[in-house]
What does this fold into?
Amino acid sequence: MPANRFALNRRHALTAAAGALMALSIAAPAAAQTFPAKTITFVVPFAAGSATDQLARAVGQSITNDTKQAVVVDNKAGASGMIAAAAVAKAAPDGYTILITTNTTHAANEHLYKKLSYDPVKDFAPISGLGKGGQVLVVNPASPHKSVGDLVAFAKKNPGKLTFGSGSASSRVAGEMFKQLAGVDILHVPYKSNPFAITDLLAGQIDLMITDTSTGMPQISAGKLRALGYSTQKRSPQLPEVPTIDEAGVKGYDMGYWFAAYAPAGTPAAVVTRLNELMQNATKSATAKSFFDMSGSEAWTTTPADLAKFQAAETLKWGKVIKAAGIEAE
It folds into this structure.
């Protein structure tokens, strides 16, 4: 081929490529301006009634109010959130399938399981943090244990006799940290989600659990569960009379949790930006505020980049806690 014809063809190819890139750069903002144009699905890794589910519904209601598009919540509980996370990882990267999740799927699981069905970093586009909160150690009102001290004393005299349930990595690791710092042996019983563990605790099938406040508060308020201690270093505003677990004698105890939103990897940046705006507004809505007030948690939002950095730091933190607690990967 003559050199001038080769140069001409190459120039045409480059011009076509530049045109395609320009079309994409114009199309992406345009798509974001019209987003959402149909129903959005929020996939939640835990059962209906869990803290994550409640927040997802509150955020979804706000987005529906803002955009006039429906938001459907799809609960895919089980396997410590892996079923839901894997489903979103494989979904079309168009912004219409969003994972509303916690540190369970995106900081803890890679340290708890030898093999994951998803990659918490490569398979997702971070959107925004949504909230942070603490957990509460609860027992059945019929339990003879009236305080954390009572519980620890009994467990030390009766190693392996008490059982604790958990339906999330936050709850599991909180229980394991309690065992480690209190120097006690308590048997772990796994559940698909915290509400399922609560059901068995109410029925007397397990002895205790450390659950998110939004799941535990209704039962505590109704007198169906007894709160013994709060998981962070600061008391819950919803349970001001309940001491922190650290205050109650298990020194150094501090374990919280967080919520965040993720889209499948490859979701256009402009759509992620639009979703971030919607999420930021949603956490300030009356429905979200009601959730935060009721659960004792607080709104916490980020840029996509800051969520990625936070997730990386949290992954290291949870890895250290899990290793220190002696939890073997399953």
Remarks:
- The two ends are 62 Å apart (CA to CA).
